[in-house]
Amino acid sequence: MFRLSNFHPKVALWRAATNIGPLPVLVRARNSAAWQDFWRTENSEAVFRDYAKGSPLRDWLARKCMALDCTSVFELGCNVGANLQAFWRVNGDLKLYGIELNENAAAWGSRNMPEGCEARLMVGSMADAEDVLARNGVDDVDIVFSCGATMHVNDDIFAAAKQQALKIARKAIVHLEYHAWTPAELQNGRNWRSSFLSDRWVRDYVAEYESMPNVGRVEYFRIPPEINIARNIGRLMVNDMTGLIIAHLK
Ligand SMILES: C[S@@+](CC[C@H](N)C(=O)[O-])C[C@H]1O[C@@H](n2cnc3c(N)ncnc32)[C@H](O)[C@@H]1O
Questions:
Q1: What does pTM read for this prediction?
Q2: How far is the CA of 147 from the centre of ligand 1 (A)?
Q3: Is 4 among the domain residues?
Q4: Ligand 1 pocket: which of 58, 78, 96, 147 to mutate (most atoms <8 Å of CB)?
Q5: Does a structural domain hold residue 19?
Q6: Are strands 95-100 and 120-123 parallel, antiparallel or unpaired?
Q7: Which is the closest atom of ligand 1 to the Cα of 42?
Q8: Domain CATH for 145
Q9: Is 146 a domain residue?
Q10: 85: containing domain
């Protein structure tokens, strides 16, 4: 294969540019508190309508979780509850719970829930999931899951949510999230967050769970590319969700 020599001016220029940062440092990244505030205060009808749409990806997630033979599920960061509706369409008998930071989204979702779908959308942070569930009279559920939500919280919030998920879930914890498949992806994704506008906290979800005492095994799946729609941030194309990770509990 043809390759430019390491000393070619184009290579030198490319190296210099990429060494300054993986992407241009245009704006300082906003911190976690600023992003939490952003999520907490969203109140646009158009945004909620968009979140309410079903998709083949939501249906795929629902089928993967249903295969775990569950009777109840709890979503971290459920917004208006579109994933819970997808679960309901697969199995109308499931008990469906969600926790959402944004009370406007939870209220909109509850108001617009299809008839017969009794998903309960609770308001609070996933960092306080156990308390919020207990206050609503729920002790435990078969599956705790997230979809494009834990990628938006920093490591402290995720650590708290994970500890509680490990206590709340009976069968499995499932993440359809921005997953790093390689150490380089983890490093690049973290640099991308700290050097640009992104509010995406990439994680190695397998590593997050494989050494936990009550986790039996961790399974992971590639998302079928034809249902994983890429979006753009400026000229860069991104997939919000890059892997499905299932931590099976003992
Ligand atoms: C990109 S949206 C995904 C929503 C939903 N999971 C879906 O698939 O449509 C991220 C959601 O996480 C929520 N969120 C962010 N931080 C949260 C936190 N600390 N606790 C609970 N929800 C949070 C946001 O308000 C938002 O609704």
A1: 0.90
A2: 8
A3: no
A4: 78
A5: no
A6: parallel
A7: 25
A8: 3.40.50.150
A9: yes
A10: 30-249
Specify if 20 maps to a domain.
no
Decide if 133 contacts 139 (C-beta within 8 A): yes
| Residue appearing with tokens 């969600």 | 98
79 touches ligand 1 (CB under 6 Å)? yes
Q: What DSSP string runs through 135-156?
A: HTT---EEEEEEESSGGGS-HH
Number of compact structural domains in the chain = 1
Query: CB of 105 closer than 6 A to ligand 1?
Result: yes
Phi (first) and psi of residue 145, to 5 degrees: -140, 165
d(CA 164, CA 51) in angstroms, rounded, equals: 26
Q: What is the full per-residue pLDDT of the chain (250 aa) written as tens digits?
A: 455 666 777 767 766 665 555 454 455 567 889 889 999 999 999 999 999 999 999 999 999 999 999 999 999 999 999 999 999 999 999 999 999 999 999 999 999 999 999 999 999 999 999 999 999 999 989 999 999 999 999 999 999 999 999 999 999 999 999 999 999 999 988 887 666 556 789 999 999 999 999 999 999 999 999 999 998 766 778 888 999 999 999 9
Question: Torsions phi, psi of 161, nearest 5?
Answer: -65, -40
